[in-house]
Amino acid sequence: MRILITNDDGINAPGLAAMHEIATDLAGPDGEVWTVAPAFEQSGVGHCISYTHPMMVSKMADRRYAAEGSPADCVLAGLHHVMKDARPDLILSGVNRGNNSAENALYSGTLGAAMEGALQRIPSIAMSQYLGPNNFHAEDQFEAARVHGPAILRKLLASWPDEREGYRLFFNINFPPESAGGVKGMRIVPQGFREHTRFACEPHLSPSGRQFLWIKGGDQHKPTAPGTDAAVNLDGYVSVTPMRADLTDHALLDTLKGLE
Q1: 115 within a domain of the structure (yes/no)
Q2: CA atoms within 13 A on the CB side of 23
Q3: What is the pLDDT of residues 172-203, one digit of tens each?
Q4: What class of enzyme is it (predicted)?
């Protein structure tokens, strides 16, 4: 199997090293793992692409490239430049340092890369590691993802539907804020929503007296509704959420027909 990996934490992030280990296990001895990742951290850029300016791509080592762009840019660079003569069978994005459950998924560059992979007709999976008191100060924050990731990926790949039209499937996987031994299992769940938790901005003064705004997130340890992603993560389970790039509210279409 030929696998392309990327992330939004940057080419030197420890989570990318964890992802390379997971991908190498999955690819097997005859497989290949290629890396095209942002030269600098790109957290929170979502599905952004560098449409109005070019990006530089630098070869760092064999099958390892850094791109001055977003995670979605990295997917495009990987598919249409670095690996143009032998496209990957799978795209893996992550392992993100911090969860991309609930509303975080909408901001995530990690998810943006997987979404772009799906739009390019390549099976794509995003993986993120929730952080909390049980793993934040651990020597290996990504232990749960390293240990449980390969088996979960094999299960998903074995059951991947044969899709030929429309918006393709991609997956959002979040590992709980636990050590590997603390993981209780896997749950297939929908995306949740953290009530009363929002992104916001906070003003600060620079030493020169100029005012700057910092974007800040909300409490990541407020659970979502029972049976949704962040809720099962905080209960010790890996969440697996199937997603598509189609943003249509299909359930509301018939209700609104009367407005025509």
Answers
A1: yes
A2: 29
A3: 999 999 999 999 999 999 999 999 888 899 99
A4: hydrolase
Q: 126 is written with which tokens?
A: 């995003």
Domain-located, residue 170? yes
**CA pair distance 228, 239, nearest whole angstrom:** 8
Which 3 state secondary structure label does DSSP give 144?
helix
Structure tokens at 88: 């990957």
- Judge whether 174 is annotated as a binding position: no
Q: 239: annotated binding-site residue?
A: no
Q: Is 85 annotated as a binding residue?
A: no
- Mean pLDDT is lowest, of 25-34, 72-81, 210-219, for 210-219
Rounded Cα distance, 85 and 25, in Å: 24
Q: What is the CATH number of the domain that holds 23?
A: 3.40.1210.10
CA dist 29 to 7, 32, 70, 142, Å? 23, 8, 30, 23
Is residue 155 included in any domain, yes or no?
yes
Q: Within a domain: residue 252?
A: no
Whole-number Å distance between alpha carbons of 129 and 85: 33
Return d(Cα 15, Cα 113) in angstroms, integer: 15
On whether the CB atoms of residues 158 and 30 are closer than 8 A, the answer is no
Q: Residue 9 annotated as binding? A: yes
The closest alpha carbon to 150, from 125, 123, 121, belongs to: 125
Looking at the structure of the chain, the number of domains it has is 1
pLDDT in tens, 206-220: 999 999 999 998 899
Distance CA 240, CA 229 (A): 8
Which range of residues forms the domain containing residue 143?
A: 2-245
